[in-house]
Amino acid sequence: MAMSRLVCVGDYEQYAEHNLPNAVRQYFNSGANYEQTYADNVAAFKRYRFRPRYMRDMSERNLTTSLLGHDVTSPIGVSPMSMCRLAHPDGEVALAKACESEGSCFCLSMAATSSVEEVGQAAPGCTRWFQVHVLKDRDMMRRMVQRAQRAGFTALVLTVDCAVHGKRYKDLRNQFSLPPHLKLSNFEEELKRAKSVVATGQSKEEWGRFVNQAFSPAHTWQDIQWLKSVSHLPVVAKGVVTAWDALEAVQHGADAVWVSNHGGRELDCLPATIDALTEVCQAVGDKTEVYLDGGVRSGLDILKALSRGARAVYCGRPALWGLAKDGEAGTSDVLQILKEELSVGMALAGVKDVQHVPTELVVHQSFYSAL
Ligand SMILES: Cc1cc2nc3c(=O)[nH]c(=O)nc-3n(C[C@H](O)[C@H](O)[C@H](O)COP(=O)(O)O)c2cc1C
Fold it and tell me: What is the Å distance from ligand 1's center to 80 Cα?
């Protein structure tokens, strides 16, 4: 589809909608079961309203911050996503390079189609984190974590919300699987060595089954300590939506908590992440950094999340849509659009610094219906 200039994330979404192969588009843009959480993540942001403070000097705004002690020039990162080479041949390498140039943090998925080594070499200046699932094969998991550490990744992001995979009806109908020209690069390296090698030369179907079965549903909060015993990296618990899990994470040694519902892809009927954020922030207090992803589609969504207590905000699908449009350049465009919208929103709302966004800047819409 021909489109004039793409000026917002919605334009990139439309582009991807019309240009990606059907099964890939549905793999990216779908949620579990009847997709209640997937839809509500986006809808919920629209239920919050700004209460701005006008007539302040807004000639300068600060978008720099730090994440687990590392300086970044943007509070907008890219979430871990599997198989990004489905969107563009440069996949995760392009995402990392875009994050490097936009001063964003990039989180690489364990199930990526680029390895920790490839990403580390391509974007050495990028603040990069490595997302992990607990694997049945602990030796394999330990080696992968240590490879990430050697490749300059500075934090581990433990996904806690996915003991097994959710039911995504579209993927089931499409019988979606990794196409033969792609590989899950972090595992591919390991397979050469791992004791649980199925057989080299196996078919892609066998390979897909192997990786799926590699994830352990027997994960527990104790795995945070295990990760700390095999590396010196801080651990972020990703997928927290309740106060009790936020407390479990911190009590078991998590250095930060990432409010996420996996973009609505695993357990359906979870709260939207912007709705869950306040509960989590109140539970962990000021000392633990809290991040959010899920449904972020504009700089104003980001400002709302910062006001409700997130230190940084990550986006998943918007980065994939930018990647689908134009690789690294398309992803950079999306990150720039979000940054610019955030900066304009800050100026219009009377906020100078992303590290000091007042809580009272944002209220739920019910504040007005109660009047
Ligand atoms: C195609 C796709 C693959 C994903 N793969 C992973 C993954 O491997 N590990 C993980 O923790 N989260 C994964 N996620 C969830 C994202 O990290 C993130 O939580 C979610 O996409 C945020 O919602 P948004 O897409 O609305 O921004 C994936 C999401 C998508 C869309």
Answer: 6
C-beta of 37 in contact with ligand 1 (< 6 A): no
pLDDT tens per residue, range 6-19: 999 999 999 999 99
CA nearest to 153, candidates 184, 193, 123: 123
What is the distance between the terminal CA atoms of the chain, rounded to a whole angstrom?
46
Q: Tell me what the pLDDT averaged over the chain comes to.
A: 95
Residue located via tokens 């720039």: 336
DSSP letter, residue 193 = T
Sequence ranges of the domains in the chain: 9-369
Q: Is the pLDDT of residue 206 over 50?
A: yes
Measuring from atom 14 of ligand 1, which residue has the nearest CA? Answer: 81
Does residue 262 have an active-site annotation?
A: yes
Burial of 223 (0-12, 13-18, 19+ CB in 10 A): buried
For residue 297 and ligand 1, the question of a CB distance below 6 A is answered with: no
Using the mean position of ligand 1's atoms as its centre, give its distance from the Cα of residue 109 in Å.
9
Residue 191 pLDDT level (bands cut at 50, 70, 90) = confident
Higher pLDDT, residue 79 or 203: 79
> Which CATH class name applies to 9-369?
alpha beta
pLDDT of residue 202 exceeding 70: no
User: Between helices 243-251 and 273-284, what is the axis angle to 10°?
Assistant: 50
Partners of residue 66 on adjacent β-strands: 71
Given the residues 232, 262, 356, 364, the one annotated as active site: 262
